[in-house]
Every structure is written in structure tokens, then in C-alpha cells.
Design a protein that fits this description.
The structure is a homodimer of 202-residue chains. Helix content of chain A is 42%, strand content 8%. Chain A is an alpha/beta fold and 202 residues long. In chain A, strands 2-1-3-4 form a four-stranded parallel beta sheet.
Chain lengths: 202, 202
């Protein structure tokens, strides 16, 4: 049996590739061998895009989302409602909310979520800058749009306590049965919460 | 709705990442944002490992497997049986056969498989060098260990015709019911072939 890969260069590439989340050693080998079949300039386009992004990435000084400019296009837009602030965990959160077309306020990207199990505390995410934005005034409502998980709830709870001294409305995304879901397959926690949070028929 | 990613650097990285096989744009974004959370030296370790491999990769001059040396460790080993040659599609084939511990001969890595649908003909893979190795003499048996697919069968057929002029035994991996498989769930083609290829009870 081969005790290792037949090449140190290959082994190093597979080792590094396998550090990506959700990529095991078999997948890493498959991806690396795929790259070997592509032309060198194509592979360098990938590696340079990743290296350049990591080295030159900038974050919006206001909402902390990834941006090529000092202020991101959303924060800089004159047509957004500056009294509404939506708190999200990361860029995917911004993109998911933007895709609904239902929100026209500004964002605040925490860059993570409080998770004592992973050693991530309030100091590791953009909480202070959020408190400063709210303290500066002008914001009427802060909408929490974090994942409906234990960590999301912990983060909601911590931040809402920090924001309580300020005159600002705090809300969170409605939790309930998904549109189009079959009740039979809805988990009991979600169903129980939608029952408790029932709304009048429109 | 955001019409594009908030940063050109990010968009370029996601575009390049999404070219990897089995990686869609959502996965690409997740992987790229994961890399942004890692330290710059760690990301450069990945990109440099990939770039170095692509630029400096070498292939064994005998079996065409990936190797850091002119002759790979298997071809260079004095303990391997030089009369047995196993033909595989790629490095994964070598690793799979080596993992069985049942083969002690040499390999020939085709670097692909004949696939007219994908425009891959005999000239695109290492067929000529295989014919040369066999023509040089000393090889008693060539074992075809390609995938049991239409393309694998086509490749077996083409190469076996090219090798017919030489005095060499041509064999292929046995096809049949997998060890531990339930007959009820074995597909009918495999079951039909194992019936036709039935062997005397030992």
C-alpha cells in the first residue's frame, strides 16, 4: 500500500485543500487533480484571485460588509432608509435579505455570532460599533436577522441588552411555518412557536 | 436586490472558485468567505501550494503517474514484478489498487479515458507509450483496471486491439456482485454479467 501520495507537491496541495470546510481528503485530491488538467494560467487565475482578495479585502467603515470602497454601495446610497438598521451575521445574510426586495434600510454585519462553544465572545464581533451607531442617534428600529439557532438567540439577547438604554425599537424576524411547507413535516418547536405567535387573519 | 457581489475582488474569487467541479456559486461564496476568516499566511499557503504544484508538477517517465522524481517510487522499486502491468485511468486508480495490497506489478497511467462525447480520443491519452512499453518486451500480462463504464469499455477495446500483435496476456478486472452487497439491490446489468461469468465453487 502507498503510505503517502507519490509526490510531496501533490501532498501539500491536498493537505491545504482539505482544510476547506466540507472538503475531505478524497474530494481535495479530486479537486487538485482537476486543477492539474487545467492550463497553468487558469490555475493561476484562481490562486491569484484568492490571494489578492485575502490581501486587499476592505470592509465598509459603516456596516462592516465587504466593499471595494470606503463606504459600501448600500451605505452610500441616498435612497436607503437611514432610520432602519438590520443586524446580520455575515455577507450571506445581507444577500439573502436583499434578495427578498422587502428591505430598504441599512445593514450592520457582525462578522460572526456569539458562540461560547467555539470561544467567540461579544468582543470578537462588531457589537461595539453597532452600539456606537445606535448611540449616535437617527435610528428608529433595529431588526435582528440572525439564524434561528441557540447562538443566534444568545447574540440577540446580548445585543438587545446593550441597546436597551437607547430609544430604539428592537425587533426580530418572525418565526413560523415556512411558506409552502406541509404542517405534517414541520418540526414541533417551529410549530409550537408559530402557535404561540399566532396573528389575526388579515 | 443586489445585482452583484459588493466587491469586484470577491466576485472574481467566487467566479474562479465556482469553476471547480461540483462547486456551485453558493458553495464558492461560502468557501471564499471562510478563507477571509483565516489569517493571510494560511490562505497564501493554500494558493502557493496549488500554484507550485501546477507549475512544477512532474510525471514519471515510465508510468506517467505524478512523481517528484524522474522515475516514481513504484517504477523504481526493485521488489515489484516487472512482468505485470496494470492500466489505470488516473492516480486515484493507482491509489485504489495499491490500497488492496493485492497487486505487486507496475502501472501505466493513461491520464484519461477515451470519450468521444467529451472529444477525448486515443491520441489524448498515454496509449502510444503503453504500446511502446509492451513492444519493448518483458511484460507477460496487461491488466485493464478502468471504470466499468461505456468509456472504460471503449478504451479497453481500443487498447486491446492495439496490443493484439504482441505476445501478452490481456485481462480485465472481474465484474460481479460486490462483496457484502444484497442481491435484491444489485442492478440487473451487474447481476446478469455475474451470472454469465459464474465461477466454480472453490
Amino acid at each position: 500500500m502507498l503510505e503517502q501520495y507519490p509526490s510531496k507537491l501533490l501532498e501539500r496541495a491536498v493537505d491545504e485543500m482539505a482544510k476547506l470546510p466540507g472538503v475531505g481528503r478524497k474530494t481535495a485530491l479530486r479537486l487538485v487533480l482537476h486543477l492539474l488538467k487545467r492550463d497553468t494560467p487558469e490555475v493561476l487565475a484562481l490562486t491569484q484571485a484568492l490571494a489578492t482578495l485575502r490581501q486587499e479585502v476592505r470592509y465598509c467603515k459603516c456596516c462592516h460588509s465587504i466593499s471595494d470602497t470606503e463606504l459600501c454601495q448600500i451605505c452610500a446610497s441616498p435612497s436607503r432608509d437611514r432610520t432602519l438598521l438590520c443586524v446580520v451575521e455575515n455577507l450571506q445574510g445581507v444577500m439573502a435579505i436583499e434578495a427578498t426586495g422587502q428591505f430598504h434600510g441599512l445593514y450592520h454585519v457582525l462578522g460572526g455570532i456569539i458562540s461560547p462553544m467555539d470561544g467567540i465572545g461579544p468582543g470578537d464581533i462588531e457589537v461595539e460599533s453597532l452600539v456606537e451607531r445606535v448611540a449616535a442617534g437617527g435610528i428608529g428600529e433595529v431588526i435582528f436577522a440572525l439564524s434561528p439557532t441557540m447562538e443566534g438567540d444568545t447574540t440577540n439577547f446580548y445585543i438587545s441588552r446593550r441597546l436597551r438604554p437607547y430609544e430604539v425599537k428592537l425587533t426580530t424576524l418572525a418565526r413560523g411555518v415556512s411558506v409552502g411547507d406541509d404542517l405534517e413535516y414541520t418540526d414541533e418547536v417551529t410549530l409550537g412557536r408559530s402557535l404561540l405567535g399566532r396573528v389575526p387573519l388579515a
